[in-house]
Amino acid sequence: MAEYVGAIDQGTTSTRFMIFDHGGKVVGVDQKEHEQIYPKPGWVEHDPAEIWTRTNEVVEGALKKAGITAADLAAVGITNQRETTVVWDRKTGKAIHNALVWQDTRTQGVVDELSKDGGQDRFRAKAGLPLATYFSGTKIKWLLDNVDGARKKADAGDLLFGNIDTWVIWNLTGGTEGGGVHVTDVSNASRTMLMNLETLDWDEELLTAFGVPRSMLPAIKPSSEVYGNAKGPLNGIPVAGDLGDQQAATFGQAAFDVGDAKNTYGTGCFMLLNTGTDMVPSKSGLLTTVGWKLGDQPAVYCLEGSIAITGALVQWLRDNLGLIAASPDVEALAATVEDNGGIYFVPAFSGLFAPYWRGDARGAIVGMTRYVNKGHFARATLEATAWQTREVLDAMEADSGVKLKELKVDGGMVYNDLLMQFQADVLQVPVIRPKVAETTALGAAYAAGLAVGFWGSTDDLRENWGKDAAWEPRMDEAKVAAEYRQWKKAVTRTFDWIE
């Protein structure tokens, strides 16, 4: 009997393959970065072919490191950077253009045009989302309108669309070699702005508004179901789980009860609150999104606060400014000073996401004096993550009426003790890190394992969750309130930059 489950975790900056045992323990992992392509200011692209190459490489690498073969896996799950959009030729299997990454802002013109009739919330009742460059629908429209011959080929039924989960699953199950399964799950489909949250199907009104032919779109499936069998390095293994990365992290945190919340610290920051089978419309700038759907069970919904730039800001310090040699170095540099020296860094590189949804905003550093040094830059970089999370939490409590008692956290930045302590301080609630902090891959593995009976129920998954570390609030509430006011003031300085 197979002893393990695998998960392909295709993220914004890298691809990983992780192998877990029945207890949720990591037994093998391999990871490789891929190129970030910036053709113009605000444009962000990935090469889909490179992502698929990296996927095969890390699968082989992790199996080798774990000392096992594909036959030792009961199933494989997929989790992915959401909204990142690929359009490819169904006959050749080649993308017609680089993938447009979720951070890409080139579609602001599409957003402005569609907003003229009904405003930014024109489709919120159906899709749960405001009109923004973030989501896939505007990106598909841009590709069809701007790549030579694309719309004609789409209308002829020759093009396929997918977020990265769909691209990976299609290739993983055979692609043009035969058997390529063209599917997505409800969690990823809910990020396209083309799916109706109630029917969990593509919506004709939305497809017409965005000019997307239905023939391009993948079939929408549950998050936990056997979609097909893999070819290549995972030959014969059931592909049985699919979750957008933030929903996967929520699932991996065992946040199965209404009111459970988690925050993932990755390229961006994403806080999700489980609202059960009820869709809670947001009045505070959050997203209503599908969390997951297990087989024929009802879908679970979440409120989400999406922040575009958090870990990416640390990478910016490293790659663009050269202030640090490696991302973990930011903590030591920040620790060389006692505070932020009076500066606030609002990283609106892709505009502002939740709770503002301001495509006209751009990044700003405010409060500069001659006193400020690179340590203060590092400190303000980390604090930006915590303050943005505080704004999302305030919105979430306003929408849900639930006062958060604690926050479960995961992702690469949760090993930064300085940031985690500051996060607990500004939220004034305990922050808790689980034993397996890479819960995104774990959630995808759980979904796949449930589909094939490797785990019997979500109760098995609850038993796997364990606390690794916790941070209690230490900062005086009055000091937090004063600094929060300054942060809010700094945010307003980013508005209306793009005319």
Write the layout of secondary structure elements.
Blueprint lengths: L3 E7 L3 E7 L5 E8 L11 E2 L1 H19 L6 E8 L4 E5 L9 E2 L7 H8 L8 H4 L8 H11 L3 H6 L3 E5 H9 L10 E3 H4 L5 E2 L4 E2 L1 H7 L8 E3 L2 E6 L8 E7 H8 L8 E5 L3 E8 L10 E6 L7 E8 L3 H11 L7 H6 L9 E3 L17 E3 L7 H27 L6 E4 L6 H11 L3 E4 L4 H13 L6 H7 L2 E5 L5 H16 L7
Parallel strand pairs: 1-5, 5-14, 9-12, 15-21, 21-22
Antiparallel strand pairs: 1-2, 2-3, 4-7, 6-8, 10-11, 13-14, 15-16, 16-18, 17-18, 19-20, 22-23
Helix pairs in contact: 9-14, 10-12, 12-13
Helical segment count: 16
Alpha-beta classification: alpha+beta
- Portion of residues in helices? 25-40%
- Uncertain segments: none
Gyration radius, to the nearest Å? Answer: 21 Å
The profile of the biggest β sheet is: 7 strands, mixed
Strand order, largest beta sheet: 17-18-16-15-21-22-23
Report how far the terminal alpha carbons are from each other: 61 Å
Portion in beta strands: 15-25%
By DSSP, the count of extended strands is 23
**Average of the residue pLDDT scores:** 94
Instruction: Give the CA-based shape.
Output: globular
